[in-house]
Amino acid sequence: MFMPKRALLAIAISTAIFVAPSSYAEDNVHNTVHSALERIVISGTKTEKPLKDVAGSISVITEQDIERQLVTDMSQLFKYDPSVQVTGSIGGAQNIIVRGMGGDRVLMIKDGMRMNEGYGANGLNDIVGRGFIDTDTLKQVEVAKGASSSLYGSDALGGIIVFTTKDAADYLTDGETFAGTVKVGYTDDGKQGNIGTTLALATGDFEQVLNLTYRDGEESQNYAGTKPSLAIESSSMFYKAKYHFNDDTYLSFTADIWQQDVTGDLAYGLLGYFRDLEGYSIIDENSQSQKDNQSLQLRFHSETKTAVYDLLNVSLYSNSTEQEDIEYGQLDINANYGYPLIEIRDMWKTALYKQATLGFLSNASLALNDTHTIGYGLDIEQSTSSRTEVKLYSVEGTPKNGYPQATDKFPETDVFRAGFFINDEISLLDGKLLFTPGARFDTYQMDANGALKEDGTPYADFDENHVSLSIGGLYKFTNTIAGFAQYGQGFKVPAYDLAYIEHDNSMYGYKIVPSDDLAPEESDNFEIGLRGHTGNFFFSTAIYYSTFDNFLATEVIGHETITDPYTGQDMLVEINQYQNIDSVTLKGIEAAVRYHINDSFSVFANAAYQDGKDDESGDYLTSISPLSGITGVSYEVDDLSAELIVNWATRMEKVNDGSPEIAGYGTVDFLTSYQVTDEFRVSLAITNITDKEYVKYLNGAGHKDMATLSDVTEAGRGFSASMRYDF
Fold first, then answer.
1. Which of 33, 253, 429, 520 is at a distance of 20 to 30 A from 9, taking alpha carbons?
2. Cα-Cα-Cα-Cα dihedral of 165, 482, 423, 587, to 10°?
3. Tens digit of each residue's pLDDT (9 = 90 or more) over 626-638
4. Using CA atoms, how far apart are residues 75 and 69, in angstroms rounded to an integer?
């Protein structure tokens, strides 16, 4: 049940009751595609420029999109963008896949800061996810598709996600000194309720914004509603302050604190082996997971021109992420596998993931003349990561022999990254041709701090240098139509959890041993595209081709036989290791169109096609998606806006031997928003109106037969509502 915390509820109510309302001028929820082309982005060059002048594909989700689509979680951000997929659901580990490439091969950045990495299963079924952030704090999310290491360094192998948070100026308009919002919402998918308030204050040259948000609900259900429910509670405190030295220079401080607690009635990882074991009965079980993320940033920004820069950004930041997972089970044991065992056993498993990053970031630009604008910058970052697991088995409060057992899934690892980039935006033919070559030098060190493997030998340290190149060009055929082409390189030094993981799960038939000779993954991305508008018809399309060398994948390197300690029978254990494979190729095409029938009605559609294979084995990548897209109609008049959207995907036939094909689907969503007064807005959404039962391919990828797909079906018909009061 949705029960907001008293303190937060009190703040929301008091601001709504005791603050005199004033008109809040807000852009219409439905920006036209033309204004979208003028939208300012930073992911393409690290400096602000209109999207129409960027030589590459960038998807943008705005604050208005988040409001209109009633987004309450990162998993919902890209629902209507088929080129970007989010794995995982509310309360679980989430990751973002861009054009079939995901995991930590896509770099996630918040206000310039590196966000936490994921851990577990390479982006498709992670244990620790990414994107620990509340969506109400976001002003814009950009997805730059394709390799971006010439600008952002290691990990930008398949693309980057840039989250930009809100400022006080996003609420204060027309010289206001105080403003804010109160927002409440509910969705029956997960029975989640949310309440939040934002306060913005300007006093002279000093401005501040504070956002408090609380969410309470359950896990998103499958179609049949048979998933064991998880109770999910999250809270967010976001604060940003700016001091303006003058119109061109400011100093800002940001604190973003996010926490989520998840409780459940099952202990999957702890009790999975014992569920069907003869003589073992489960009396009690439960699980708890707590996720915490804290980021702090001090940033200096200046557009006061000097001899070495026209624009300068310098920031210091820290980002700390923790996830603690606790499972408990109680067993009634009456078994005899060669010896009698009769006891009531209490069992605990506690796993803790920690990652802390400190960073110095800088970027600048300088117009040398009307033709050349130089961009350059230096980034230095240090991260420490660990994953520990403790098991305790006890009987009547006394630990059993050999317990507690403490293991490190990988040693505590220090990673040092430093990189310097430079690019030149060259304007030719009176500005019709923009040409941008770029390069970045990175040095990367990964240190296992002298830790030893189970065989007593030390883990290998990694010390790599790398140069990444890029070149992009954009030609304006007319004032409204432009074509672009780009080539970019990406690289990723082997992630600590893949290089160092030593995971013995022999009881489940497999183990993973660490690697000592992994090479950095590298990528080459080629893309051409066309975008613009003619009359009332707007369009954007791109074709891409990407190759990935030294791609990391698990390989079976042998088998061994062990004796099951419970049954006394021999078991065959598969030995796995992460290794570099020769190459992987991804290719595809994306297109989006919109036609404005008149001032009120428009129709729109987009689609994405992907193909990806292991070049050596010929196997399809399980991270690609089938041909999919959306089609819809939009209506907008005065204070009312509405959209009817068909979300569709074709049957996925690009599956490997032993895996089932996943059926295509078509679902219908209805979104509407009404500005009741200048201060009060109501938004509603009905999703999957026809109550269609279906499976998204990425959730079904890797399943061996159709029988288990019912567990990963999407929710049926759903309803969401949100009310926002501006003052």
1. 253
2. 80
3. 999 999 999 999 9
4. 12
Q: Which of 605, 687, 585, 710 is nearest to 82 (CA)?
A: 605
Contact 483, 541 (CB under 8 A): no
CA–CA gap between residue 503 and residue 555 (Å, rounded): 14
Pick from 15-19, 174-178, 372-376, 654-658: least confident:
15-19
Strands 159-165, 106-110: pairing is parallel
Question: What's the angle, vertex CA 457, arms to CA 455 and CA 462, rounded to 5?
Answer: 130
To the question of pTM greater than 0.85 for the whole model, the response is: yes
Residue 1 per-residue DSSP state: -
Straight-line distance from the first to the last Cα atom of the chain, in angstroms, rounded to the nearest whole number: 29
Contact status, residue 337 vs residue 317, Cβ threshold 8 Å: no
Q: What is the DSSP string of 294-337?
A: EEEEEEEEE----SS-SEEEEEEEEEEEEEEEEEEEEEEEEEES
Q: Measure CA 203 to chain center.
A: 36
Q: Is 139 exposed, middle or buried (0-12, 13-18, 19+ CB in 10 A)?
A: middle
pLDDT in tens, 146-186: 899 999 998 898 899 999 999 999 999 888 999 999 999 99
Q: How far is CA 475 from CA 104, 429, 472, in A?
A: 33, 9, 10
What phi and psi values does residue 136 have, to the nearest 5 degrees?
Answer: -70, -15
Which DSSP category does 117 fall into? P
| Distance (Å) of CA 127 to CA 232, 389, 507, 556 | 16, 13, 19, 22
Q: Which two tokens stand for residue 349?
A: 């498993």
Which are the contacts of 29, defined by CB distance < 8 A and separation ≥ 6?
A: 64, 67, 68, 641, 673
Structure tokens at 646: 């068909």
> How many C-beta neighbours within 10 Å does residue 605 have?
16
**Dihedrals φ, ψ of 518, to 5°?**
-80, 140
